[in-house]
Amino acid sequence: MEKRNGTLSIYGLPLKVVSYSELYGWTMDEIVKLIGLKNNCTFCGVFRRQALDRGSALLKVDKLVTGHNADDIAETVLLNILRGDIARLGRCTSIITGEDGPIPRCKPFKYTYEKEIVMYAYFKKLDYFSTECIYSPNAYRGFAREFIKDLERMRPRAILDIIKSGEDFRISTSTKMPEQGICERCGYISSQKWCKACVLLEGLNRGLPKLGIGRSRGINSEHNTNTKQANGTQSLQSKQCGSLDF
């Protein structure tokens, strides 16, 4: 696959590349070198989701379409159950999310198995990448993926059954849900004072990469705990997450 003048030459489609370095001032290699191989997927996942929205905003698109397939959705359902993440569990099986936001997201391959997509690409002689990320072997999602594959071998419909279970979950009206707001630092959607990307980025810039790791951690809760550590750490050049202009 060759890129020429912002276009994929094989298909003649426009291509816009948005890099972590451009958006956040950090490459994934630099982040892994600092944080190690245990929590690196947290950074990549948060930054990637926001990068998609930022790229969409730059292109002034109406909708963002992703390639999440049935395997991905089933893994996400299981992960949200294991994490006890009710808010995400309630919306992770929706084909369209973020309808109230500036750029809704669509997942047209929700019911399509990953192997079906690979077979289609193979017989249509389409280019596709089959290699795994070199930093993903220790990813939490990998354990959910292996478990689901074991279930699928015993029950071929396991993936669609898990998706159906996720669709049928109902959240009690008395359950307190996070209120969606705007990040005070970059303007991105967030239920906290700062969005997750800004919290993680602040930790990187302060030389405290674990600052935003874990649900209970954050800028406010970690400030007092990390003050002494920050004073003894060589300060890094500040690289802020730029404002998101929709």
UniProtKB/TrEMBL annotation:
Chain spans, region Disordered: 217-246
UniProt xrefs under InterPro entries: CTU1_C, Ncs6/Tuc1/Ctu1, Rossmann-like_a/b/a_fold, TilS/TtcA_N, tRNA_thiolation_TtcA_Ctu1
Regions of compositional bias (Polar residues) in chain numbering: 218-246
Limits of the tRNA(Ile)-lysidine/2-thiocytidine synthase N-terminal domain: 48-138
Domain of life per record: Eukaryota
GO molecular function: transferase activity
Keyword Ion transport: no
N-terminal signal peptide: none
UniProt keyword annotations, A-Z: Transferase
PANTHER family xref list: ATPASES OF THE PP SUPERFAMILY-RELATED, CYTOPLASMIC TRNA 2-THIOLATION PROTEIN 1
Protein name: Cytoplasmic tRNA 2-thiolation protein 1
